[in-house]
Write a structure and sequence with these properties.
Blueprint (H helix, E strand, L loop, with lengths): L4 E7 L7 E7 L7 E10 L2 H8 L15 E9 L11 E4 L12 H6 L13 E5 L3 E3 L6 H4 L2 H14 L7 E5 L3 H12 L3 E6 L2 H10 L3 E4 L6 H8 L5 E6 L5 H7 E9 L12 H5 L4 E4 L5 H14 L5 E6 L3 H10 L5 E5 L1
Parallel strand pairs: 8-9, 8-11, 9-10, 11-12, 12-13, 14-15
Antiparallel strand pairs: 1-2, 3-4, 3-6, 3-15, 4-5, 5-7
């Protein structure tokens, strides 16, 4: 039987220290909705940016953080045929984006974790059309990592037209980066990975990275990328840093593609226009992906029995420590909060 109230983590101010565990009413599944008892959630850099970096300064307080979770359907509303009680699902990040391009309203007003209530709570009600079935080979903890990080990596490679024999440049060892490494290898591509840690580079090579470059000891890493490709450059860059766009452009092959997905190194970048025009490269912002693309990705995950890389997990009572761990930037893969 579903309880009347649930535990929920609320931010009363834009600070990790302002995270408080309280209680909220359990929502009910209205017409067309499903009620999901969440088993696990995962953190993304956006969640940290909203909480401590003023990413959405007008967001009403208090709010429940985080966007990505997995759980079990415990109640269905009228007219729901997409799921049944007992199904394991993950809500999609941009609620209402089912295929094609999203509208501005969906991208600015219908995203979980801000401005919509987030998933660091025990239950959530969402439209049945705005959730996807979980790959059967994944646990709740593993599936909770998919909605933003995995789908962003998948979308970047799809938009870049990844194919066997391509070389993909991946920045860092966070969730998006390691999913991009795994998906690129599934496609038969070669992967060059950047990190400031030799230990992380070794772990990435164990996951399949072909070349590892320490950008701290090799600040001109774009030169090393060109050397590793015999002067040709890479076909696709998964740009998670943001502020390094100039070096990413210098790493591209003729006609290459940069998917700009993040800003962990800063919000601004100086772009030399000749590096865009001369080699006829493409650059595109990647804002996660649609439900249809999510489902296609899940089919590939199930087919290849792919497993997400989990760095660490924290109970809901210690979710603030999970955010601090992300802020320190030492993680390798995804940080999970067990509910």
């Amino acid at each position: 039987m579903t309880p009347d109230t649930m535990r929920a983590l609320e931010a009363t101010a834009f600070s990790i220290d302002a995270l408080k565990l309280g209680r909220r009413p359990v929502p009910t599944a209205r017409r067309g909705e499903i009620l999901v008892r969440l088993g696990a959630a995962s953190l993304n850099y956006r969640d940290l940016a909203v909480l401590v970096q003023g990413y959405l300064p007008t967001l009403p307080l208090p709010y429940v953080p985080a966007s990505d979770a997995c759980g079990e359907v415990v109640e269905i509303g009228d007219e729901v045929t997409r799921f049944k009680v007992g199904d394991r699902v993950t809500p999609i990040y941009t609620q209402g984006w089912h295929d094609g391009m999203p509208t501005l309203e969906l991208r600015t007003k219908r995203t979980l974790g801000a401005p919509l209530a987030g998933v660091l709570q025990e239950y959530i009600a969402v439209p049945a059309e705005d959730a996807v079935a979980v790959p059967a080979n994944l646990s709740d903890t593993e599936a909770a990592t998919l909605p933003i990080a995995a789908l962003t990596a998948w979308s970047t490679l799809q938009e870049g037209g990844v194919k066997s024999g391509d070389t993909v440049l991946v920045q860092g060892t966070g969730g998006v980066a390691l999913f991009a490494l795994q998906f690129a290898k599934l496609a038969g591509a070669r992967v060059i990975l950047l990190s400031s840690s030799d230990e992380k580079l070794a772990r990435a090579k164990a996951l399949g990275a072909d070349v590892g470059i320490n950008y701290r000891t090799t600040p001109d890493w774009h030169v090393a990328v060109k050397d590793a490709t015999q002067g040709k450059g890479v076909e696709i860059v998964v740009e998670t840093a943001g502020a390094t766009l100039d070096k990413s452009l210098a790493s591209l092959a003729f006609g290459g593609f940069i998917g700009v997905v993040g800003f962990v190194a800063g919000y601004k970048a100086e772009i030399p226009l000749r590096a865009v025009i001369g080699p006829m490269v493409r650059m595109q912002g990647i804002a996660v992906g649609s439900r249809a693309r999510f489902e296609a990705m899940n089919r590939a995950i199930a087919q290849h029995q792919l497993k997400p890389v989990i760095d660490s997990s924290f109970p809901l009572e210690q979710a603030a420590d999970a955010f601090r761990h992300m802020e320190q930037g030492r993680h390798f893969g995804k940080i999970v909060v067990n509910l």
